[in-house]
Amino acid sequence: MKIIVCIKQVPERDAQVRIASSGKWIEESDLQYAMNESDAYALEEALQLKEKHGGEVVVLSAGPERAGTTIREALAKGADRAIQVESDTLNQLDALGVAQLLANAAKQESPDLVLTGLQSDDLGYGQTGVIMAEIMGLPHASLILNVEKTDSGITVKRELEEGWFQNIELPLPAVLMIQSGGTKLRYATLMGIKKAKTKELKKLSATELGQPAAPAAALDKITQPQKQKSTQIISGSAKEAAATLVEKLKFEVRVI
Amino acid sequence: MSLLSVTLAEPRSFEIWEKLLLIVLVAASAALFFRRFAPILNRILKSRKDPNFSLAPIGKRIWDFFWEVLCQAKVIRERPLPGLAHAFVFWGFCAFALVTLNHFAVGLGLGFLDPAGIFGRFYSYFAATFAAACAIGIFGLFVRRFFIRPRWLGQKVSYESGFIAALIFILMVTYLAAFAVKDASPAASALWWIHSLSILIFLPIIPHTKHLHLVLSPATIFLSRGGFSKIPPLVGDEDFGLVTGKDLTQITSLQSYSCVECGRCTEHCPANNTGKELNPKEIILGLRGYLNEYGPSSEQNIIGKYNSITADFQCTTCGACEFQCPVGIEHLPIIIGLRRGAVNTGAWEDEHGAKLFLALERGSNALGMSASERDKFIQKQAFPIFDGTQEYCLWLGCMGGYDPKGREIVADFARVMNYLGTSYGVLRKEKCTGDPVRRLGNDLLFQQLAESNLETLAQNKVKKIVTICPHCVRTIQEDWKEFGTPPEIEHHSEFLARYADKLPRPNQDDRVPQIPTLKSGNEQKVSETDRVPQVRGPHDQVSDRGVEISPLRPGNDKIVYHDPCYLGRYRDVYEEPRVVASLAGQVVEAPRSHQRSFCCGAGGGLVFLGEETGDRVSHTRVNELIATGASTIGTACPFCNSMFRDALAEKGDAAPQLLDIAQLTARSLPSADS
């Protein structure tokens, strides 16, 4: 099975994001970058499928040169080779434009399965995978926690709301958007990093892949979110307080 | 006849056939010895060369050889009675070198020590003294091994050891008996032959038993890696640690064949003492077993038949084994080497381990928290930012920057520095030093963390670091050297001890109030308006009515000080923290202290690895500390503190209070300097 995993490089989780002087983008010079979290789960899912059923895992990433470090990390974790759509002006596109570039690059590989993360940790549109599927004319499903190969295609487990899950069957080829947390990630190893050095990283320029659509919406201004805190002190004995806390977590905050 | 007129009886001169028989027997014995020893020597020499090994400083090596081999200092110091018994056997053997040479020479009619001559007589008395001591010594060791039977000598009774003890005993007795028989008498001949045969039987037994240490351990001690827990650098693109036989170095192989199976490592191992699988002795003997079966050029994985990955990852890297070993085996580079092999190739699968690695791949600290939490802490405490003008860079570490109790310790230490007028600043950004991943064998992460931190320190022109964490001290000072030149660093106990004269003393008349030192807001995320007092230790009494303020403690506490492994055995700092603690109260000692301190269970990255099998190391240690009757447990490491905090939580009212030495000092400060 040939699996393409789309991976985006995003600012590190701990990053202190500052707004650039233009007010239209963030200051990139002092940021550190990492692999988008749900993309890491997409990669893990692909690697596990390959380990079970054989085949090839190809990383596909669109980004400036610095995205190479994240691509190497994916290769170190076990992907076989990588394709980078290199461009410094991707932030001028919207999800449609990026999906067009990625879909055009993916088509050349005729994959059996395309996996993307559910959404990016930075912009969070959650659109790229769906649009790619449309452009490639493939069936797709999102919020996927688990993929099983069957004789006729695949069975996937989708996460619905309120703790419900849905199992559906899809034919191959297909595009899946992977949700975080469905499996356990592996760590990068020294051996993996050393092997990754010799793996193929093919660079495509954005211009080779056709003219992407102009963004439908323009980014006007970026602002820091307002900080909000609301704290409640629950009174009463330990027992009563615990009971109240559980009730609030269940019915007000709805986290348990 | 006075005692001094007694001389050593020599046999009558031998017939030619007796001489021929002797030559044949000596040759057979020596041949058998070499037939067994040669393959072992070959396996050691065919092992990979040690990268970066250097004989310099030679002076230290000569001293170690003199002190540990010739003087038997470590053997005696760590186990005085059996140690002395062993030393007498060893010295007896040394004294007998000349005697034995002469003994066989006599058999061939070439004796060079005249029993009646001045030197010969003197030397025979000299050797006889040692022979008597040696006979008593070996008898004592025999009784210990077969009748007292300490647990760490193993369950299996070694009959070979008994046989060898008997041979040594016979050697000494036959020598001594020769003073009581007449020269050239049949008895003298009989004694001579029994003595000779004992030696000739003894020789070929050496290579395949633990008695090989007679031959190898002097070399092992002389050729140590130098430094405690010295982890060799990985060399080239194929080196991932100890994966297969090809990764075993000459020193590792030499050490594995030198093990005398005394079990001192086992006796002191915190994992083994709390019912875990790990037995450091078996790790070493496992390598020996591997080398015997597969050899040093095998590509068979070491982990498997001769090594358990579960055991490898139960080690807290406390270093008690390496410290105790009388034959110079360095267990830590071996255990960490095996972990490196397993982690660097991805063979180790552990949920908690992977979580730790991923947290450090993506973030800055081992606790997996957002770096902004550290920023907030710094802001709330109003710590000055290091800008190159201050004397010290105060390194917070993961515990000091993110852990609630670690923060209390840092805050208290900062107050003491303020009181002393020392200038210091903290870095805006700091990453984990890589200690847990270094000890767990993740070289990729360790290198990334070390390089990133070294760059930050260089950019900020840091010259001197002080920190509350012995793990940070060790990792920065020793382990980072592989990737650059770290700044000078010291532990806060060393800093505080230097200022002992200027540190505040508790007022003995009054009870010393506990001053909450964390500035508001650091204790938990609450808004300023509805904040509740939150500085609590595990010793605070919690009742149904809510939390009560802990009772005030008198300044003349009885404080039991717990030596952290990474400060004591790793850095040789024992007195400084005691000096600091003694200002706050009377320091009492736990049964296992100083070099023999028992680990808290956190080291080697184990604090991040979920449930332990068997008893918890921290609980075992805490029970020992409580049993001293001290009202306060004094710590000098935020990891120990964290482990004890959890272990004390279930003790209820019986729990002594738990304070870092910085907190013991800060208690006596005149007032909170806000």
Q: Could you characterize the architecture of this molecule?
A:
Chain A has helices at 37-53, 67-77, 95-107, 128-136, 190-196, 238-252; strands at residues 2-6, 9-11, 33-35, 56-63, 81-86, 113-117, 140-149, 153-159, 165-171, 174-178, 201-205. With 256 residues, chain A is α/β, with parallel strands linked by helices. Chain A has a single domain (2-205), classed as HUPs (Rossmann fold). The mean pLDDT of chain A is 92. With 674 residues, chain B is mostly helical. Chain B contains 27 helices and twelve strands. Chain B has a four-stranded parallel β-sheet, sandwiched between helices. Chain B is elongated. At the A-B interface, helix 5 of A face helix 16, helix 17 and helix 21 of B.
Key words describing this protein structure:
heterodimer, A: 256 residues, Rossmann fold, nine-stranded mixed sheet, 6 helices, 11 strands, 28% helix, B: 674 residues, mainly alpha, four-stranded parallel sheet, 12 strands
Lateral strand order in the biggest sheet of chain B: 2-1-3-4
> What fraction strand of chain B?
5-15%
Task: Please tally the helical runs of chain A, counting DSSP H or I stretches of 4 or more residues.
Answer: 6
CATH topology of chain A: Rossmann fold
SSE diagram, text form:
The complex is a heterodimer of chains A (256) and B (674).
Chain A lengths: L1 E5 L2 E3 L21 E3 L1 H17 L2 E8 L3 H11 L3 E6 L8 H13 L5 E5 L10 H9 L3 E10 L3 E7 L5 E7 L2 E5 L11 H7 L4 E5 L32 H15 L4
Parallel strand pairs in A: 1-4, 1-6, 4-5, 5-11, 6-10, 7-10
Antiparallel strand pairs in A: 2-3, 7-8, 8-9
Chain B lengths: L15 H31 L11 H13 L2 H6 L1 H28 L10 H31 L10 H19 L8 H20 L7 H10 L27 H9 L5 H5 L1 H4 L6 H14 L15 H4 L7 H5 L6 H14 L6 H12 L8 H11 L10 E4 L1 H6 L1 H17 L3 E2 L9 H6 L2 H17 L4 E4 L2 H8 L10 E4 H7 L12 E2 L29 E2 L2 E2 L5 E2 L2 E5 L13 H10 E4 L28 H10 L5 E4 L2 H12 L7 E4 H6 L8
